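Students often ask why we bother encoding 3D structure as a string. The short answer is that it lets us treat folding as translation between two languages. Here is a chain of 626 residues written in the first language.
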Amino acid sequence: MTRKQRKMLTRIIISSAMMICLQFLPVSGIIQFILYLIPYLVIGYDILIKAAKGILRKQIFDENFLMAIATIGAMIIGIIGTGDYVEAVAVMLFYQIGEFFQSYAVGKSRKNISALMDIRPDYANVECDGKLEQVDPDDVEIGTMIIVQPSEKIPIDGIVEYGMSSLNTSALTGESLPRDVKPGDEIISGCINMTGLLKIRTTKEFGESTVSKILDLVENASSRKSKSENFISKFARVYTPIVCYCAIALAVTPPIISMMISHSANWSVWLYRALSFLVASCPCALVVSIPLSFFAGIGGASKEGILVKGSNYLEALSQTDCVVFDKTGTLTQGVFEVTAIHHNKIHEEKLIEYAALAESASSHPISKSIQKAYGKEIDRNRVTNIEEFSGNGIIAKVDDLDIAVGNNKLMDQLNIEYKDCHKIGTIIHIAINGEYAGHIVISDIIKPTSKNAISLLKKSGVKKTVMLTGDREKGSIQVANMLDIDKVYSELLPEDKVSKLEELLSKKRKKSKIAFVGDGINDAPVLSRADIGIAMGAIGSDAAIEAADVVLMDDNPLKIAKAIRISRKCIRIVHQNIVFAIGIKVLALILVAFGIANMWIAIFADVGVMVLAVLNAIRALYVAKL
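And here it is in the second language, the structure alphabet:
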């Protein structure tokens, strides 16, 4: 509890105690008024000051003005007629109790979100003259060697140069399972080093590191308002003066009509109804609970490693009925591996050995995959006469054998008859001394959660899934069939992906949204063009993350379905609060205007509805597991 909240609680207790004690004192007249004025000012002085400042600034119509007018009016009624000041003090007291609960709830929500996002490092350890020196992360340059000890936060993105450890990534990804790292591994800021000492060579400045970008996204999320929030803001600006004028009309018109008809009027009755009308009309429940619902929804998503850049994107995400995927790095791991070896008249170990030796001078990802599959140290002295055929393959002499390694075009060029393969992936054929020896299949491995992610999206109400890829048609169709994706477009250049997305956007239903999920720099134009751009944040390029509206911190496709579920829960809560608050207020206003309800019902229509709406809004902070 904050100091301000403790002070408010003290005022509530003092005012309540004084009001209860006054019930037992046999006083009346001016002394009774003065005694009741004390708890009234104790509990309501700040509201009266805010109302006065609003009048001076010509910003009259707000909840402080409504409360001030209603309670001062109730005091005046007590002076000139009833001699009862309890309702005036009670209205202010219950309003402040409601404000207290609202403040506590909002503070708790902010505290939860701050705790989830408490990833900003306070310092970075730099070795200087054999001693560790703590410096501001902003002062660390690219290429600096920093040291992270157990239980410390990784301050800046970099590559592990020395040490092995396990990292707690829960603040970034929402996953509790530690991630093991070793020399050569890329490492992102915001994680907590759990076990061993690590020496890390920084690859980015602190301002460009993952932790800075995450904090920037979260801090600026509230500046991007949803349509619901904008509606409530406009609604409150129009609604408040209207109910004030209605209250004046309610206080004045019936007595005047009564005087015209019967030459008498009960002004105090209609003034009391007008004051009760003002109390009941206060729009606090809507003005507070709607932004809080989105704030809690963004916070709940952050807890799960899903960063939403604004409540407008959270609202749009809830309307998504078509999800378009990039393939490599999004549905697949983006890492090429040898997945099959089909040999002919030669053992598979020899086949992969000859292929690895022939490819030893190449830095192409496919060559690297073959060398990795071989798994042994390569003796370059065994390889001579290397000749590369751009885009087709390599011919080299290995142990005095003529080895040809490449695609079907290379085999056609060498007039070597080869065999096709039904496996998914890139087929690398090998020929020895002009005779076909077999082929190696290299594939981009499908992420283990991709199939389940597509299934969950369809269960959550997504009507169509599409894959856009630059890969060959045959392999792309096989991947799409394995994952149960509805439509696939293959062999696309980056500009072709934008054109296909434009085509899908032109055919969508009016209120539906299309989301695109990608990770590479070539996906940035498509991410920007989609209704909702979702970027894979862990391995995704900076350009993709910058262009996206939603960032998944652990590259898990399951998080797409979770993000949509969070957004839809948040929007349901927003709609519930709008319907509940407006419905109760309209009913209370009608009952008060006709004299069926009194000030106490008006208090519930204001304070009670606000507290219930705020408590309902906080539900958006909690996310059910998939």
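Translate back mentally: The chain has a mean pLDDT of 82. Keep this in mind for the problem set.
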